[in-house]
Amino acid sequence: MRTVIKEGTREGVKSHSVFAVCLVLIILPLSYLAACFGEVYFTARVSYHKTADVIVVMGAAEFDGVPSKVLAARLNQAYRLFAMHLAPLIILTGGKEGGDKVTEAQAAKAYILRWGVPSRDIVTLQAGRDTFEEVDEAAIYMDQRSLRSAILVSDPFHSFRVTQIASQLGLVAHPSPTRTSPIRGDLELRYMFREAVAVAAGNLIGYRSLSDLLHGAPLVRLW
């Protein structure tokens, strides 16, 4: 005996299938983004006080050679770690935007010298245009000198991505976010959401490719 399937039943099954697929396509990306946000959020709340070969300070804005409040907060944290003898060398990163007279690293060095840190214990790397390039420059410098471990100083919202990049580049990385950043409250939360997106994109296509894409380079190099 034949089973008769009504046309309406077929359409109902089809519509439910389409709905289920759409639901999965929405839930999976949101769940992944939420997981990335969780990593950003919880890393922002921790700080490791372990000895390392170097302290790496991520660049931030400067104004005519004067560090912004964001950069100053990072430098204050770096000095505190240096004064605790957790590392014997401070690496300052950060290039410059169009129209700037000095690089972020140069402005940072002038600032931290006033704290009494000897110039011989400071290295300035001035080529980086974004987080990946800054960490990559630091990793290259360290590799050439057989330095392996780094305390990474940045804002709390930024710490997970910086640490993840450094780890992928072969460093033993310890985040030490500043606790005096002016980026707080709702503004910090917005930055965390932005970081979650950056982390998700970096995980999917690679941070080097993401950096290339941001600067107009092709994702797949032909030479």
Note down, in words, how this protein is organized.
The protein has a single domain, classed as Rossmann fold. It is α/β, with parallel strands linked by helices and about 220 residues long. The chain is built from seven helices and seven strands, in the order αβββαβαβαβαβαα. Strands 5-4-1-6-7 form a five-stranded parallel beta sheet, with helices on both faces. Helix 3 links the parallel strand 4 and strand 5. The mean pLDDT is about 90.
Question: What is the strand and helix layout of this fold?
Answer:
Layout: H1 7-44, E1 54-57, E2 62-63, E3 66-67, H2 69-83, E4 90-93, H3 104-113, E5 122-125, H4 131-144, E6 149-153, H5 159-168, E7 172-175, H6 185-205, H7 207-214
Parallel strand pairs: 1-4, 1-6, 4-5, 6-7
Antiparallel strand pairs: 2-3
Helix pairs in contact: 1-6, 4-5, 6-7
Q: What fold name goes in the CATH topology slot?
A: Rossmann fold
Q: Beta-strand level of the residues, as a percent range?
A: 5-15%
Name the CATH superfamily classification. Answer: HUPs
Task: Please tally the helical runs, counting DSSP H or I stretches of 4 or more residues.
Answer: 7
CATH class: Alpha Beta
For the termini, the CA-CA separation is: 67 Å
Tell me which oligomeric state these chains represent.
single chain
Please report the total strand number as a whole number: 7
Unreliable stretches: none
CA-based gyration radius:
23 Å
Residues in helices, as a percent range = 40-55%
SSE sequence, one letter per element: HEEEHEHEHEHEHH
Judging from the principal axes of the Cα atoms, what is the shape?
A: globular
Structural class comes to alpha/beta
